[in-house]
Design goal:
The complex is a heterodimer of chains A (about 450) and B (about 575). With about 450 residues, chain A is an alpha/beta fold. Chain A contains 13 helices and 17 strands. Helices cover about 30% and strands about 20% of the residues of chain A. Chain B is elongated and about 100 Å long. Chain B starts with 17 loop residues before the first helix and ends with a helix. Classes of the chains: A alpha/beta (about 450), B alpha+beta (about 575). Bound molecules: iron/sulfur cluster (2 copies).
Chain lengths: ~450, ~575
């Protein structure tokens, strides 16, 4: 087995806090009394509802689709009755049409029984042809479940000019607290490898890799064992460093290929997929199961019973936290996603979507409250930036409305990982200013286009 | 400094702060402080801590927000800058130096620029620079921790071996003498991630390489004086150094290079202050030119490698050209010299058997001594001056009695007619027999060629120049060694021109050694000249060589005596 790999410069070590949940098996949650299923859980255009209030739906039943434009289908996550289709706020502060479904009182267990996913197919099992695979993936409504939410059936469509030779499963999971992929690799490694094999053959790649940081020893053990069975698939151990999960850095670490700026891994012949996405592909292709739930971690030292849960989509954050025993203290903040790149919210009615990777309650001692002292030019933000940017300088430009200089110094190449903000001893809100910089740059670009139409 | 939080994250933080950073640096300064107290006594403790505390206190009115009951000495930035300044003071500094230094540092070094984070120059170095210029004694009166002797320069003439440099028991500033203590501090800072290894390492490498090129002992350079202290604690100052990796390397190498150059070529034996200040001024620029290509700028990275290779090739080519030019010039000059020498020497001294290079006091003048057998019979000086059309090579043949025998004008860029005129008319003949002792000016004695005044005057200037260089050289570099080894035992008489007139000596040679030198006659100043001659005699006898230092204040007498001894041994 090859040695431990890493990307060359930048990055930082974070307090991992994974031991809170790495040993807790995935527990399927009972369907809540009510779910709010957004009609847009993907990158692209929203789906149109194909059910109407009063209609009874079952688990896995198609409730939203859109033939035009980029989108991914939406299915019901519980058995019950549609009560309304209305706008609801999302975690990113946007609003979206949602299908509200109330649970039937008399049904007990609505999530698909685990045995419906067996038998798990091995290395010798045939893989359907590419079109069939893409069709089944599209029907199942699979999107990138690491957070990007890009529709997977589109991703599996290889362009002629950029052939794919390698597929990487991103099991780095470098965000603190989150152990979703960790647990999935421990518990569902066989399905993960089957999913990877399906993707590999579908896109015509030679090799598939499952990459995992070494701070997850149990997961590593399982994927190494599993990889021995698959002739074209490899397990790769990564050093523990934030942000190894960033696509470009993962590609650099695993294959030593540098993705050119403003381009996708595809440009160097690589396709990167999330762990849960690959498992969803197995479910869809081999068992015809649509995405109606997802696994995520609820963690933080103020959570009574932190753990990893299989959550029906559309369940509210409030119900989810309650299922984990609720907060044990009063003073905490709720973060959706990981604490580095996630979003802070106090709205417990926000629903879980396909790309919700975790929920973390952080306690006051961990807060990153910003006092924005003066920059002491210590250079730590520069040394941790995995894109080799100078966040101190870029943010100075951004704050002085010197957007062109900010662009010149790469504000648009920032991957918003937050490593710079994390280490800044002056606690400057660099990430926030970088976002502002990107926004200002977008305005400027619009302006340029308007004044100078091609 | 209102506390806010954004919903964009990150929602956790390394829990680091300015105060934690600064106080960690204070810890790193402790080993050097302890060694200072151990070597120089408790007054050292006063100097270091008085500077530090004074700095912190002076800062309060400027930025009261930084102080609280929890952090009575502020965020530590002024305190550590004060410690650094204190450690760079001489152990004999007066009691008021810490306070004046601290005030200069905080006010001129920091708040004039707008306070923490905004100053371009390292405040400790600004204060040190002002102190150095205003009260040089307070900064550079070094005291030896071993014997208590004071010296004005820690570097010149210090010959102590490497071990004391490591331990620190050498004269120097408080915190700068012990390399071990400094390395301990550096190690601490690096493991805490507070400084990058790139800065100190490149400072030291830059200095060592520059020293090696200039022919100075690189190890001594690195270990001595404040270089190590500066490399670890001053060049790494966060606010005033660049932030990128490549720029760290360029910046550090620049600091090291300038330090050695300043040490070597200026009146300041301690180079770091001005070298580092200069580089501070360039830090922001370095972050611009040294910005690493963005991750994914694949083409840009290739371009840089390509550019670096081109640059290296260009530098190599230039070096090659320069070397070729240098060698070529030397060859041409040599050929010319040989020809000119032959012409002028065989013209003037048909019997000459040997020509030896003699030291010249003017680097633009090459001096030779002409011998017939063992006897020096005259001198030959050669120089280049700018004439009407460009450089002009002039050779002057001199008698032993210092008068001009002949002047030869060689290769020149004057117009052909002018060049010929200068050579053929009676112009050059006017120089023959000129005696510089007559105190007459050549410009009065020699008549310029009408229509070629510039060229004529250039020749006159050249002859004056050779005469001036010769006046020193004749007495200074009398012989290569002291050729007593082939002389029979006996007493030899010789004379040379001293300050007041002729000095006549009797030199006793026994067993191929000069055993005694007696002064037979002289007209030197009583007292001063007398004793200088006797000192010189002792030195000659000790060294069995004429290559001895002159007695300062009476160089004329010393040289005259040596010339006399040489003349005696040469059988003149
Ligand atoms: S958020 Fe952007 S600037 Fe900051 S470390 Fe990450 S990539 Fe670099
Ligand atoms: S980490 Fe903060 S204080 Fe340090 S250089 Fe970057 S912005 Fe400035």
């Amino acid at each position: 087995m090859p040695g431990i790999r890493k990307f060359p410069i930048g990055g930082t070590h974070l307090p991992e806090n994974k031991d809170l949940t790495t040993g807790s098996p995935i527990r399927a949650l009972d369907p809540p009394a009510r779910v709010v299923i957004p009609l847009k859980q993907h990158l692209g255009v929203p789906c149109k509802p194909i059910v109407s209030p009063g209609e009874r739906v079952s688990v896995g039943q198609l409730i939203g689709a859109n033939k035009e434009g980029l989108s991914a289908r939406i299915h019901s996550s519980i058995r019950g009755t549609v009560t309304a289709i209305e706008r609801h706020s999302m975690v990113d502060h946007s609003e979206c049409d949602c299908v509200i479904i109330e649970r039937d009182q008399n049904t007990d267990n609505q999530t698909p029984a685990p045995d419906s996913r067996t038998p798990i197919k091995g290395p010798d099992a045939p893989v359907p042809d590419a079109d069939t695979v893409r069709e089944r993936v599209e029907e199942a409504g699979i999107v990138g479940m690491g957070g990007a939410a890009f529709p997977t059936h589109v991703k599996l469509q290889v362009r002629k000019d950029t052939p794919i030779d390698s597929v990487i499963i991103n099991g780095a999971e470098c965000e603190p607290f989150i152990t979703t992929d960790d647990r999935l690799m421990q518990e569902r490694a066989a399905e993960l490898f089957r999913g990877l094999e399906i993707i590999r053959i579908t896109v015509g790649a030679r090799t598939g890799y499952v990459a995992c940081e070494i701070n997850k020893p149990e997961a590593i053990k399982r994927i190494v064992e599993e990889s021995a069975r698959w002739p074209h698939l490899e397990a790769v151990r990564l050093d523990t460093r934030y942000p190894h999960g960033a696509e470009k850095h993962l590609v650099k670490a695993v294959l030593d290929r540098e993705v050119p700026i403003r381009q996708l891994p595809m440009s160097v012949g690589v396709l990167v997929n999330n762990v849960q996405t690959a498992i969803a592909v197995t479910d869809a292709v081999d068992h015809g199961i649509a995405v109606t739930s997802r696994v995520l971690t609820v963690s933080g030292s103020v959570v009574s019973h932190p753990g990893n849960f299989q959550v029906p989509l559309g369940m509210s954050l409030g119900d989810l936290v309650a299922a984990a025993g609720g907060p044990a203290e009063d003073d905490y903040r709720l973060v959706v996603g990981g604490p580095m790149t996630g979003i802070l919210t106090d709205d417990f009615s926000i629903p879980v979507t396909k790309s919700t990777s975790g929920v973390v309650l952080i306690r006051p001692g961990e807060y990153a409250d910003r006092s924005a002292e003066v920059c002491i030019r210590c250079g730590r933000c520069v040394s941790v930036c995995p894109m080799y940017l100078q966040p101190n300088r870029i943010t100075t430009f951004v704050r002085n409305d010197m957007t062109e200089e900010a662009e010149e110094f790469g504000v648009n190449d920032c991957i918003l990982c937050g490593a710079c903000s994390f280490v800044c001893p002056s606690r400057r809100p660099l990430l926030q200013w970088l976002r502002e910089g990107k926004a200002k740059s977008a305005v400027l670009a619009d302006d340029r286009r308007r004044r100078n139409p091609v | 400094m209102s506390s806010t939080y954004s919903s964009t994250g990150p929602h956790i933080h390394s829990q680091d702060s300015i105060a934690r950073t600064m106080w960690s640096i204070a810890v790193a300064l402790l080993p050097a402080t302890v060694v200072a107290v151990w070597l120089f006594g408790p007054y050292a403790l006063y100097l270091v801590f008085a500077t530090a505390v004074a700095s912190a206190l002076i800062e309060i009115p400027f930025d009261p927000d930084r102080f609280s009951l929890r952090l009575p000495l502020g965020d530590g930035s002024a305190f550590i800058a004060g410690m650094i300044l204190g450690l760079s003071l001489a152990p004999t500094s007066a009691w008021w130096v810490p306070i004046v230094g601290a005030a200069l540092m905080v006010i001129v070094g920091k708040y004039v620029f707008g306070g923490l984070g905004n100053n371009i120059f390292n405040p400790a170095l600004v204060a040190r620079g002002i102190l150095l210029l205003s009260w040089p004694n307070q900064i550079t009166r070094w005291i030896s921790p071993v014997d208590g002797a004071t010296s004005a320069t820690p570097l010149s003439g210090l010959d102590v071996g490497y071990l004391p440099l490591f331990v620190g028991n050498i004269p120097g500033s408080l915190g700068e003498t012990s390399v071990v203590a400094l390395l301990l501090g550096a190690l601490f800072l690096m493991t805490r991630g507070l400084i990058s290894w790139r800065v100190p390492v490149s400072v030291l490498t830059g200095a060592a390489v520059t020293a090696a090129i200039l022919g100075i002992d690189p190890l001594f350079t690195v270990l001595s004086g404040s270089l190590m202290f500066g490399a670890v604690f001053m060049a790494t100052d966060m606010v005033t150094s660049p932030t990128g990796k490549t720029s760290h390397l360029i910046y550090g190498a620049g600091c090291g290079f300038l330090t050695v150059v300043i040490r070597r070529y200026t009146a300041y034996p301690e180079g770091i202050t001005f070298a580092f200040l200069l580089m501070n001024g360039l830090a922001y620029l370095m972050d611009r030119i040294g910005a690493d290509p963005i991750f994914g700028q694949v083409e840009e990275r290739k371009r840089r490698v390509y550019r670096a290779v081109l640059l290296a090739a260009a530098v190599a080519l230039m070096a090659l050209l320069a070397a070729a030019g240098f060698i070529g010039r030397t060859l041409i000059a040599d050929r010319y010299l040989d020809a000119a020498r032959e012409r002028s020497i065989t013209g003037a001294y048909p019997q000459a058997t040997r020509v030896a290079e003699a030291t010249s006091y003017d680097p633009a003048v090459t001096m030779y001594r002409v011998y017939e057998e063992r006897r020096p019979v005259g001198y030959f000086g050669h120089t280049t001056v700018n004439g009407y059309g460009g450089p002009m090579q002039v050779s002057v043949v001199l008698d032993l009695d210092e008068s001009v025998r002949s002047v030869v004008v060689g290769q020149n860029s004057e117009s052909p007619t002018v060049g010929t005129e200068v050579r053929t008319s009676g112009f050059l003949a006017q120089f023959s027999g000129f005696d510089p002792q007559s105190r007459d000016s050549l410009f009065d004695e020699v008549e310029s060629i009408s229509g070629a005044t510039v060229s004529s005057r250039a020749v006159i200037r050249a002859v004056e120049r050779v005469l001036a260089a010769r006046e020193e050289a004749v007495h200074e570099d009398v012989a290569v060694g002291m050729p007593a080894d082939s002389l029979a035992d006996g007493v030899y008489r010789g004379s040379g021109r001293g300050y007041g007139g002729e000095i006549v000596v009797l030199v006793t040679v026994a067993g191929e050694r000069v055993t005694a030198i007696e002064i037979e006659d002289h007209s030197e100043t009583p007292g001063l000249g007398d004793s200088a001659m006797h000192t010189t005699i002792e030195r000659i006898l000790d060294a069995q060589s004429l290559d001895v230092d002159s007695v300062s204040g009476a160089t004329g007498s010393s040289r005259g005596l040596r010339a006399a001894v040489e003349a005696a041994l040469a059988g003149n």
